[in-house]
Amino acid sequence: MKKNKYKFTGKNAEKKQRIMEFIERGATLVMAANAVGICRTTLWNWRKADEAFDDAVCNLWVEQSLEQLDKLKASDDWRSAAWMLERREKSMQLKYEEPEQKQSNPLEGIDLDKLEDDELATLIRLIRKSKPDGDPGEG
Asked: How many CB atoms within 10 Å of residue 23?
């Protein structure tokens, strides 16, 4: 492989280059991430934030998958190529999805119309106390 085959810029350009080199050698995405000292989530975040990097990873992945298919077709002993292709495809399907941030509503399920004035005042005081900025919220 030629040095600097991929032209990445920014503070993580060197690690991205090394990731591509590991993928070219047959590493899965998780293996490549671990090899450069980052976690899988960081790799997915880089891909999400850098379209050129994501395109390079996807294009290389497809290229190598096609090479494995060619080996399968040409060989009497297809098992090793099939094994690699199967693992690579499973690895490519792993997607990092950010957990949904759900705001909890402390008043959910409470019928405010049934509360007495002193109960409402206590509820508001408790809500204000639980919020870092003292804001009881909308409503």
From this structure: 21
Rounded to the nearest integer, the mean pLDDT of the chain is 78
Q: How distant is the alpha carbon of residue 45 from its chain centre?
A: 5
Q: Which domains does the chain have, with CATH numbers?
A: 13-93 (1.10.10), 107-139 (no CATH)
Higher-confidence residue: 137 or 29?
29
Question: Is the overall model pTM greater than 0.70, yes or no?
Answer: no
Q: Sign of the C-alpha dihedral, residues 103, 106, 110, 112?
A: negative
What number is the average pLDDT over the span 92-114? Answer: 64
